[in-house]
Each structure stands twice: as C-alpha cells, then as structure tokens.
Amino acid sequence: MNAEDKERPSAYPAHWKVAFGPSTPLAEDYQVGRETTHLEAGTVFIPGGKPLPCDVVWERDIPITLRDGVVIYTDVLRPADQDTNLPALVSWSPYGKSLPAYPCPPRGVPPEMFSGLGKFEGADAAFWLEHGYALVNPDARGAGNSEGDIHFWGSVESHDGYDVVEWAAEQSWSSGKVALYGASWLAISQWGIAATRPPHLAAIAPWNGIYDAYRTHMVWGGIPNPGFFDFLQFLIRGANSSVERIGDMSVREPLLNEYWEDKIPDLSKVTIPAYIVMDGVTGIHPFGASEAFRRLGSTEKWFRINNTHEWYDQYTQQYQEDVLRFFDRYLKDIDNGWETTPRVRASIINAGGEDFVDVPFTQWPVHETRYQQLYLDAHSEILSMTPPTEASSVSYPGAAGAVTFTITFEQDTTLLGYMSARLWVEAQDADDMDLFLLVEKLDADGNLLAPHRHFADTYSISPPGAPGRLRVSLRELDPDLSTDFVPIQAFRRHRKLAAGEIVPVDIGFTPRSYYVEAGQQLRLTVAGYNVRGTCVEVDATEDEVVRASRVASEHPRAENTGSHVIHTGPGYLSYLKVPVVENPH
Length: 585
Description:
Elements: H1 3-6, E1 20-22, E2 24-25, E3 35-39, E4 56-65, E5 71-79, E6 86-90, H2 125-128, E7 134-139, H3 154-170, E8 174-183, H4 185-195, E9 201-207, H5 213-218, H6 227-232, E10 237-238, E11 242-244, H7 246-252, H8 258-261, E12 274-278, H9 286-295, E13 301-305, H10 310-315, H11 317-331, E14 344-348, E15 356-361, E16 369-377, E17 382-384, E18 392-397, E19 402-408, E20 413-417, E21 420-428, E22 434-442, E23 466-471, E24 503-508, E25 512-516, E26 521-527, H12 544-553, E27 563-568, E28 575-581
Helix pairs in contact: 3-4
C-alpha cells in the first residue's frame, strides 16, 4: 500500500465522547498461542458433525501488524496438499476465532451440515478447503488477544480489514486474490472494508448484513433501539480491551451526525463482484441488505432472498455450491457460466401453503412492480382499493394502544419488495409520537399466517410480518435518498407537533415477499409500542443466550404519552402502498 493508504483515519472527531466500556474477560481456552495443528481427512470435529474431506493445516495466532502498529491475531486453515495458489476467504468479526465456536453448529443448522471447523457465521473448512480455498479467521482489533479496542464497524474496522486483505494476498500460499465472506457482523463489515478498495479484494459475499446501522437498526425510524447490541457487547471477549457501547450511543446521540456517518460506507465505491443474500422472514438485517444491493456501485452483483434464516441458508449444500460457483468465477477465473445466473432470485413466502423459491428477476426492485395504494378508512377500520369518501379518524392510547386496518384480496396477488405507508396523524396531549407499524398476512377467517419454520431454535428477533416505525418529529425526508417506493428520513432535526396539528408522515417497511391467495387478508397494525405479531412464540427449549437476545430486541426506547389520532378520507388520504408483481411464478 502507498503512504497515503497507510494513514489511519480518525474514527470520530475529537470532540465526540464515544462510549467505551470493558469487554467481557477472555476465557483461558481462547489463549492458545502460536501453533500449527494437522487434522486428517475423515476427522469429525464435533459430535455428529460433517467429516473433514481432506487433510487440513490449521495455523493459529499468526500476528498481523496493522498500519498504526496495533497487532491483531489470525488463524489460517488450508488444505494440506496445496501450499501455493490458494485464494483466501476472510471472515471478519470480533466474535472469536477459537474452534469450535459457540454455538456449534449455529442454531437451526443440523450437525451433519457443518464440520465445526469454521468461525461463527463464517466459512466452513469442510466445504471450502476441499475446493481449493484458504480460510483467514482474524480476531478483529480488541477481540481475543488482539490489541486495541473493539469498534462497531466504521472507518477503524474498515481500514483494519483492508490491511488484513492485503496481508492475506502476500502470503506464500496465496494466489493473490481475496474475498470477504460471512453472515451478520461478518456481512456488515464487508460493506466498509470493500469501500476502502483493497487492491487484492476480488469479490464479496455478505450473507444478510445491516447497511446504514443508524437508519436500519440502531435508531430505526428515529427511535433508539439499543437492546440487541446492548446484549451483544457482553458476548464479545477481549484480553485487555474495551468495547464500543453502540447501544449507549443510540440513546446519547439519537440524531444522524458524524458518529453515525462514520458507520455508513459509500457503497458507490464498491465496484467488485458481489453475491448478496437477504433473509426473507427474519427482521434484523433485511432492510440493510436490500438497500446495500441497490446502492452498490458494482455492475456485477447478484441478490438472493431466501425463505429460511441466514445460518441454515448459509450452510445448505445447494447454496454453498452456488456461492462456490461465484467465487470460482472471480477468484479462480473459471469460465463456468456464472454470469448467466439471474441477477435477482426471490423466495416468495406463501404462509399457509408452499413457498415459491428462487423466482428469477432481472433487477431490484423488480421491473414488473406496480405500486398499489390501499387506503385506510378510520370509520370502518378497513383498507380499500378506493379512497374513502368521508373524512374520519380513530384514536388509541399512545403508550399502549393500537388500531388495525384489514383488506380481503379478491384475486391471487404477489407482493414483492418495498411497502410504505403515508399516514395523517395528530398527537393529543403530547408534542411527539412514536409509531410502530406491522403488515401481516391472515387467512380468510382472520387468523394470522406465519412463514414456515425451516429452522429451529434460532434467535427470535422479528415479527412474522413486515415492520416499520417512525418518531413523528423526525418525519422530514432526505430528498437525495428517498424514492417513489421507499421513504428515507434525514434524521437531522426534530419538528415537534403543535396542539391540534395534523401532519403527513411517510414510513418504510422491511422489504418482504408475500403470496396472498384470493380470500386471504392483509392487516396493517398501527401502534404506540413495538408490535411483535400475535403468532410469535417463545420456544421452551431456548437457552439463556437466545432468550436474552430475543427480549433485548423487543424494547426500543419509545417515548409515547397522550393519545394518537389517525386521520383518513378527503384531505387526509392515509394509505398503505404495496408492491404488486404480476404472475412472477
């Protein structure tokens, strides 16, 4: 890298007081030290796990000196019969590189699908080494025995990742081509690392990862949402490090500012090939994954929406082989026809029936979309294809109330993509209001239909429908980011409500794909609290970690008082806009 590249950017301006706290102490079994382990083909690393198909060389705790002098440590796994010309897959996170990782296998993944010789949410050695790849599993800055403090994404992590990509390309076993791979944090980190443009980064494969952490999670809708990451920070282990308290920062800095902007990489700078996956039924990542695909600068990008969950999907043989074809094309220059793969493949959820899987399209949002407005009628509490002719309103207690609007579909309909709502609202005895919205599919009798559970015992972090939310004082839209199909707020200033003031607000939902049969219903709930959906059940087998993550994710910092009023009809046309796709399957 040149001298300019070596300069470490300041993560945050000096006047920002970013919250850091001590990380969870490092357990003794994480302190391995430099050593090399040889594993023979046929080794079963975990009970019931996938046997290793080849001999493996596992190099542990290799030091890497970053551009500012901080030393981090990485493990490298490679096939024993090949010590040159190996492309590298980097799985970047602070979750620890000791194997087998906890939980192992990831929840919902049958043991026979996973060897255990893979970083949590990262590449599984039993698959990738057999196909001629090396795995690079670093402990990010501050994690494990790595020096420094643990950062939640942003320029510090992104430039650290740049350094590790370039380090991997220089190793004696390396072909000089490197890719980033993994789910969740291992996907989120890819956006920022790729935006720094490491010269030897050839491709990325982010599996369901937040993009724009402020808007799509931490202060979603302008409402601080610290719970899940308050929980997560206590799972990250470090020997002598501190960890950024991003949950605290969502409460301390609720407006979009320099702190949050540092965590929003410029994806127009990412021009390398990308294989992007979005979960079609869970809730923590989909809005970010779909927005990242839209904004990515690459002309060679592919998008797939699954109907399961990131972990199950990631280790399914079919999709490991799918991303292998992608990596073989761009890391090994194999002419395997990958370019003919449909640019978008969507699983359309048919709750109560059979899903339509991997339906092909040419772009996202799909070209075939027609946006239909379903008008709210407060008088009868229904949704209608035609605007109501009389003005009316409905109210509910702001802190704990809700109102629903329902429509019955007269013909089979596919909804695929971005839903949004325009509501005319009023706060009584308050100058602000937090709105939580949820769109759900019902059967003909009004019973909720949930997606199939293709996985078991995973983190329950989303309602079964399409959620959206907004703090009304932050309703001002960003004109550069908003489109006709997705409203995106600026979040730069509060505009409080005056007594009796009625204002329009535009709210985007987590993208979803639903097939609604004739006679079935769609329900919109508007509430003053986080609507979880009536069919979310607590699994009796949940361990404490799963239960804590679920509970933490359910409690954003809403601040509702007084009453909420929803106005409909002439002069106040409130509606739900849904993306109708004609005969896609």
